[in-house]
Amino acid sequence: MTISMHQVSVAPFKAGLKSLDSILDKAKAWTETRKIDPNALLLARLAPDMYTLTRQVQAVTDQARNVARLAGVERPAYDDTEKTFDELKQRIAKTIAFLDTVTPEKTQGAEDKTIDVPLGKESIQMKGIDYLERLVAPNFYFHLTAAYSILRHNGLEIGKRDFLGMR
Amino acid sequence: MTISMHQVSVAPFKAGLKSLDSILDKAKAWTETRKIDPNALLLARLAPDMYTLTRQVQAVTDQARNVARLAGVERPAYDDTEKTFDELKQRIAKTIAFLDTVTPEKTQGAEDKTIDVPLGKESIQMKGIDYLERLVAPNFYFHLTAAYSILRHNGLEIGKRDFLGMR
With an 8 Å Cβ cutoff, is B163 touching chain A? Predict the structure, then answer.
């Protein structure tokens, strides 16, 4: 057997998105039980110039949909208008549905493909495998961990098992 | 070309460790310039039951040295005695030196190998690729992001480019 691009992109990203979805369920339930304003969490940040929880969740899905560039399919367009836990969960669901359309065949050989990566007004070229391993995957986990950490910092009782999606 | 285990484990982990090393340089320099007690950062946490910065850095290297299980070589033993930025940087350097001994040949085919993963007193068996993609890589980036976030939360002026190791 060899390693497929699907195994190192679509598969782990789907797992991470599912974990994030479950974590948001717990966060939402906690705001209801404790009568906490959902925005106290949704707009929370770890530093004044870091993203809010809402923006972190959006960023996780942004990285996941970057798989489109590897697959050579259209990258789904999102509006960044989410304001509630349910809307963020819908965005995650829509991203998982997109990933489900990216079959192993579609990313086959993408490791060698030259990818145009938008960087501000310019774009740089990267090999598929480097794009995934140096940019997309680190960024995916960065925003996933930041979302988790904002909630932990604010007192939500979740743990590493939630992050890893272990039941 | 096909994807090698080395490309999705040793290579990105080395890049992440180098980024972390540079981030610790900036943190150390900041404590010196501003006459901050280094322990104000080294013992900082994002939540009372999350790891300190010191422990997060140790955990990043712990995940990186898990590559030993994929390569079928001895996992380097560490003492977890680091108390300063310099000692943490030495631990990172030692981990990078270990990763440099793990040539692409040593992890070839590891995606299919059955790995014994210690889990408390028991151990579970996982396929090499799943061990990497579901446990080691997510954990590696989790602790790397947590270390970064602790420093950002405490006011260190670093950004995503530092996290990604872009110069």
Answer: yes
